[in-house]
Amino acid sequence: VMKIIVVKNEVEGGQEGFKIFENAKKNGAHVFGLATGSTPITTYNDIIASDLDFSDSISINLDEYIGLSADNDQSYNYFMHEHLFNKKPFKKSYLPNGLAKDIEAEAKRYDKVIEDNPIDLQILGLGRNGHIGFNEPGTPRNIGTHRVSLTQSTIDANARFFANEDDVPKEALSMGLASIMKSKHILLEAYGAEKADAVKGMIEGPDTPDLPASILQQHANVTVILDEAAASKLT
Ligand code: F6R
């Protein structure tokens, strides 16, 4: 069941997203699934500005690049500290370890983390191609944490953040769709016209691995926050 909230812009969207975190906390949520990227930043800013206290809560992030250390300013670990954890510490924050020697073992370890800490509220952004986490179109739906080869277009898009194209990570570790679907409540935010096709497919299109986010049609409790541009293709 998808509840859809359309707002004017991502500042208002951030406020709506914040209210969902606030309510979840009030109702005893303890484990929060978190995302990086530009989308959740307004919600994180409202969390930082609030008196919500996460010092007893657990966070579990969706994904991390392989090969970047936590103190590399392009790592998702670094991003989360910059945009949330430095100002709103959690009791314990989990991210995949992009420097793990044995990536398969690291994926298993991460699945165990998720199994031991069932996610009460998972926040998601949406890729232009309908990806969630690093689950790109065609990703099997029944898998947990796994190694992902980034598409050339993602590598190209990331190249601007790095001194050399060779420094751009080519792989990532991502939570799987099966794990995301186990979250009790999912909050997906999407802003901007470039997300409008993915939004339409996610909500109105067929439920298909070609558009990973369409799997959310099967989830019992999803809240979608859109700005008018992202909602513009909905009928
Ligand atoms: C981030 C993630 C990605 C992003 C998506 C949207 O941890 O897993 O799925 O949510 O690529 O990115 P932005 O928000 O930058 O448009």
UniProtKB/TrEMBL annotation:
This is Glucosamine-6-phosphate deaminase. Keywords: Carbohydrate metabolism, Hydrolase. PROSITE patterns: GLC_GALNAC_ISOMERASE (PS01161). It catalyses: alpha-D-glucosamine 6-phosphate + H2O = beta-D-fructose 6-phosphate + NH4(+). HAMAP family: GlcN6P_deamin. It holds the Pfam family Glucosamine_iso. It comes from the Bacteria. Its EC number is 3.5.99.6. Belongs to the glucosamine/galactosamine-6-phosphate isomerase family. NagB subfamily. It comes from Pediococcus cellicola. Catalyzes the reversible isomerization-deamination of glucosamine 6-phosphate (GlcN6P) to form fructose 6-phosphate (Fru6P) and ammonium ion. The active site is at D63 (proton acceptor), N129 (for ring-opening step), H131 (proton acceptor), E136 (for ring-opening step). InterPro entries: Glc/Gal-6P_isomerase, Glucosamine6P_isomerase, Glucosamine6P_isomerase_CS, NagB/RpiA_transferase-like. GO terms for biological process: carbohydrate metabolic process; glucosamine catabolic process; N-acetylglucosamine catabolic process; N-acetylneuraminate catabolic process. GO terms for cellular component: cytoplasm. It is an enzyme of class 3 (hydrolase). Residues 24-222 form the Glucosamine/galactosamine-6-phosphate isomerase domain. GO terms for molecular function: glucosamine-6-phosphate deaminase activity; identical protein binding. Pathway: Amino-sugar metabolism; N-acetylneuraminate degradation; D-fructose 6-phosphate from N-acetylneuraminate: step 5/5.
